[in-house]
# Entry
Amino acid sequence: MFSLVRSCIKTLKKIKKLLIIVQRSNGDVLLSLSLINTLYKYYQHPQIDLLVNDDTLAIAKLLPNINFIHQFSYQKKHDNRWQQERGLVKSIFKKYDLSINLTASDRSVLYALLASKKSISAVEQNNKKSWWKKIFLTHIYYFDSTKHILLNNSQPLNILKIEHDNIQQSPNIADSVVANIQNKLNKANIKNFIIFHPSAQYNYKIYPTHLRNELLTHLNALGLPILVTGCNNQIDTEIKATIPNLNNIFNWIGETTLEEYFALSQLSLAYIGMDTLNMHISAGQNKRIFAIYGPTKLSMWSPWSNVLKASATQDKPKQTYGNVTIFQADMPCVACYKAGCDDQHGKSDCLDRIDPLLVFNEIKDWYQNVKL
# Structure
């Protein structure tokens, strides 16, 4: 048995074509970058392809060292499921030396099995769901929701016995994009600034309007430009209309592309806002982070601190580790891990219980000690 495992690992050292499957959210795709870069270096510049959901394509396109991106669409699944499946299977079938699947769903595991004879995949700890996966996959690891997603995504490297450090990496943004953003800041006469990101993918993660505006009013008193950011989707557009008109509050919602946002974040002093992709972008850039959390599970989805190579593991009304401060409600149900109190993407009462003044005082204390 030992010789068989050793032989398998030795075979996996001759990898030239890899498929990495990440069928989850934008944050999962971003936080696969450290794995991708490590594999690219270790296997001496192999061809690495991705398979992602089409709603994460924008972030996937920014990742370096990627040859091609296969897309899965839930809309196409609804319209003509089997046509999409046939096309995807045809495009990946036995095309790779190794497939690595970072999500434990049945579909993504099947893609991994079809793409290569050698496969590594996350699986559920529940044996009723994962028994068949354990039989057919070359290597498995348990998807552990008590560990940060960055650590979960490094498990394939542990299986392959590839040395790595637990650092969240960030894509390199083109100098021309950084220059464009710098020019826009210059035109607005903005030098040092803080990003305030009020939105998230789902409404149940968003700080209530009246509390958000109270916090912005406090932040305005710092005398420092606060850039409110967001995209052009319905949630962000609705928020844009509610942002108060204050001297030091700049409403930039809908005014940057995703790549430009990376550049903007890179030039910022700090991030204030919700637990969403933008927060993880700031974490990868080692920015000072002040994050407002509702029902999200911290052990898996808190901002990763490269300073400490750690994340939050316990729920607390306020906690700071490394360059990160997290605010949660002081309620016995926090964090419930539900999609809102009704678990149907409704309202999260816990977000109503986070005092804007508490958040502001923490930011003010930090800012007073920043050497600009």
